[in-house]
Amino acid sequence: MDEAARERAAERRRAAVCSPFMRVPRFPVDVARELLDAGYARLDQLAGRSPDSLLAEIAQRHKTKLPAHFLPALRMAVYFAETDQPDPKKLFLDQWQ
Predict the structure, then answer these.
(1) pTM to 2 decimal places
(2) Which of 42, 54, 65, 74 is the one with CA 20 to 30 A from 82?
(3) pLDDT in tens, the chain (97 residues)
């Protein structure tokens, strides 16, 4: 990986870490990065969306299979976006398996 590619990867990671998706407790940075790459910039854009359709949208751009934690993370993000006062017990990925 050359220096320019390394800098681009670091910038993408920085953007994901600073994104509104990271307001969701314990949200994976790689999922936030993929949501940003798919054109989502705010949590409220996920409200009313199907986690399965979000996963399919992200999967279209990848040639390899996505990690298993993507679907639970998307389920948790949609729940967080749709709920005014989310249950703290539901803000763990293993609750959305």
Answers:
(1) 0.90
(2) 65
(3) 689 989 988 998 899 999 999 999 999 999 999 999 999 999 999 999 999 999 999 999 887 789 999 999 999 999 999 999 999 999 999 999 8
Those residues with Cβ within 8 angstroms of residue 50's Cβ, 6 or more apart along the chain or in another chain: 78
Closest alpha carbon to 83 in 47, 50, 42, 45: 47
d(CA 68, CA 10): 23
CA distance 55 to 40: 13
Q: What does residue 26 show for φ and ψ, rounded to 5 degrees?
A: 60, 30
